[in-house]
Specification:
Helix content: 40-55%
Structural class: alpha+beta
Distance between the termini: 35 Å
Number of strands: 2
Strand content: 15-25%
């Protein structure tokens, strides 16, 4: 477990060092618990921000229906498996 954690920290640090910053980005280094360095990068907003598309009522209802249907299917499968194992 310690080896995996050490490897994860090493790879994360190496990826942070190897990452290049594009022009217009300012990065500052912060320290988590005074031991683990991490960078917070900020950019200047683009001059013409793109507007996010709005979701109309029909799309919202369709998404809600799909979500409820998926949850019903998952709930039905779980109860059948539980009954079979008992």
């Amino acid at each position: 477990m310690v080896r995996k954690l050490a490897l994860a920290i090493l790879l994360t640090t190496a990826a942070g060092i190897a990452s290049a910053t594009p022009p217009g980005v300012v990065c500052t280094t912060h320290w988590f618990l005074g031991i683990i360095p991490y960078e917070v990068c900020t950019t200047n907003p683009p001059p013409n921000p793109v507007k996010a598309p709005e979701i109309d009522a029909a799309s919202a209802v369709a998404g809600l229906t799909l979500t409820i249907g998926a949850l019903a299917v998952l709930r039905g499968r779980r109860s059948k498996i539980a009954v079979t194992k008992v």
